[in-house]
Amino acid sequence: MAIKRHALALLLALICGLLSPVGLAVAPAEPLLQLVGSGSAVRLDSAALAAVSTDFGALFRAAPAAVARPRSAEEVAGLLRAAHAAGSVAVSARGRGHSTHGQALAPGGLVVEMAHGDLPAPRPTPVYDGGRYYVDVWGGDSWADVLSWTLSHGGLAPRSWTDYLHLSVGGTLANAGVSGQAFHHGPQISNVLQLDVVTGKGEVVTCSKEENAELFHAVLGGLGQFGIITRARIALERAPQRVRWIRVLYADFAAFTRDQERLIALDGERFDYVEGLVIVDEGLINSWRSSFFSPKNPVKIGSVAGERRVLYCLEMAKYYDEDDGGGGKVDGAVERLLRRLRYVPATEFVTELTYVEFLRRVHRAEERLRGKGLWEVPHPWLNLFVPASRIADFDATVFRGILGNNTGGPVLIYPMNKHKWDERSSAVTPDEDVFYLVAFLRSALPDSGDPTQSLTHLKRQNQEILEFCHHAQIKIKQYLPHYKTQEEWASHFGPKWNRFIESKARFDPKRILGSGQGIFQLPSSLLPS
Ligand code: FAD
């Protein structure tokens, strides 16, 4: 403990020397702390520390000793050089803190807040070079900002998204970044051309597939273990103007997954986005992710469900432009694509909206939930990649069994093509050509009086799902993973584990980075919230 305090004091001294406006050299802790409080990039006050002591999940908490908000790669490098010199200090980059299991926390250490906060963010300009468009953005920028900047410059936009855009570029690239476009464009980590990364030794390294490739691949999906992404070069395309968003219902799981897999295999005429939902309770129809369903239509949905308790909703989107005859061209394409699907007749729900409205759909739901005080509640989320060959077993036991009548939030299910993922990245997926994301996006409502909405119940269900997969030998991989032991981490990474350890030794030899993930420093100091 004494050693840790000493290391931290040293770290603070070093940091302040590097970041304070007056450029302090190493100095005694007391005056230093005062100076830090008066406007430098490092904050030690309890309000600043409290703000980064938990995350969206609200399942764990751990206070850091300091929070820094660097404005440049050089400042990040200064922080990491200081932490590297101090040795045993936990450091975590924080994007928007939208993790659910404390992944961006730094118990007793330093949180490097990458968001610009209230300060205006510099607006990057897209570039056309070598036959392609791209934009260079700061690691802490949100995807919502990236969209608005690129759209305002010639109507460009990234092509692979997450469902929700108020996530940071660095935070999603540290995982993968998936949504309904991933089957075609790959995850967000497959759409990055170059990175600037500050390694755990405090070196600023530019990397890509061609240059410093080991670091590039290690960092993508690398859970913040090898460096802090300060700049990402994101591939862009011309943004469509409008979206036809279609949902259809299935009572038959085999027909549902057959159609999903058929859609993601199409080469020529295809949808631009394919996702899906499992609906086990009608309450969901009014919930945030299902707001698409018209409240005027519940009878129709109820009658489709019939005796079978579980429904599956296939969600598709086709992009188009105003000058395509006001959507005229898209009619034919959508009609041809839908004709081949085997959903329950007359269960089509169609919405026309702008591309931006479509991409902002979860943000609208967030605003509604915030209004009802239902956003800042515990989120025991479980995200799994399930191999396609076992998805029917998963349905039989999990959707039709373990879940019961109340899922506690939306359950997403959609397939992806493995060949769109770069195997050299640190991200791990099942060993099959097609695998599904199954995302249990639950909210616990401790005061609801309904035991099935309690945190304990939802956590127990998550555990049951994981145990079922283990016993049934369904070789799932957790997405946004959370484990308690290093053996579990080794098994998660499988054949990539040795390379993961080697990259750690090379880029973060003192193991200071990404402490909240608990891979190399077990997060014994993360407390349940
Ligand atoms: P944080 O939670 O702040 O950080 C996550 C991890 O990344 C930490 O380990 C952190 O240290 C590390 N990190 C952060 N910044 C950097 C950086 N610059 N360089 C290196 N490492 C860094 N995910 C999807 O893939 N698809 C979705 O559709 C999707 N929808 C979501 C919807 C909601 C409402 C929420 C809350 C989350 C959703 N997510 C989704 C999950 C999201 O991708 C993760 O939470 C992810 O961690 C990004 O969040 P963040 O930017 O807040 O990162």
Concise structural overview:
This protein has helices spanning 2-19, 29-37, 46-51, 73-86, 143-151, 169-173, 182-185, 213-219, 253-265, 298-305, 328-339, 355-359, 361-371, 391-402, 455-471, 486-493, 497-507; strands spanning 42-43, 60-61, 66-68, 91-94, 110-113, 127-129, 132-138, 156-158, 192-199, 204-207, 227-238, 242-250, 273-279, 311-320, 349-354, 382-387, 411-417, 434-440, 477-478, 527-528.
Describe the protein's architecture and organization.
It is a single chain. This protein is of the alpha+beta class. It has 3 domains: 2-118 and 507-528, Uridine Diphospho-n-acetylenolpyruvylglucosamine Reductase, domain 2, CATH 3.30.43; 127-238, Uridine Diphospho-n-acetylenolpyruvylglucosamine Reductase, domain 3, CATH 3.30.465; 242-479, Vanillyl-alcohol Oxidase, Chain A, domain 3 (3-Layer(aba) Sandwich), CATH 3.40.462.10. Helices cover 32% and strands 20% of the residues. The two termini are 23 Å apart. Residues 16-40 and 285-292 have low confidence and may be disordered. Flavin-adenine dinucleotide binds at residues 55-56, 92-99, 103-104, 114, 139, 162-164, 167-168, 170-172, 174-179, 223-224, 228-229, 362, 480, 514, 516-517.
For the structure shown, list the relevant keywords.
20 strands; Uridine Diphospho-n-acetylenolpyruvylglucosamine Reductase, domain 3; Vanillyl-alcohol Oxidase, Chain A, domain 3; 6-stranded antiparallel beta sheet; Uridine Diphospho-n-acetylenolpyruvylglucosamine Reductase, domain 2; binds flavin-adenine dinucleotide; alpha+beta; globular; 8-stranded antiparallel beta sheet; 20% strand; 529 residues
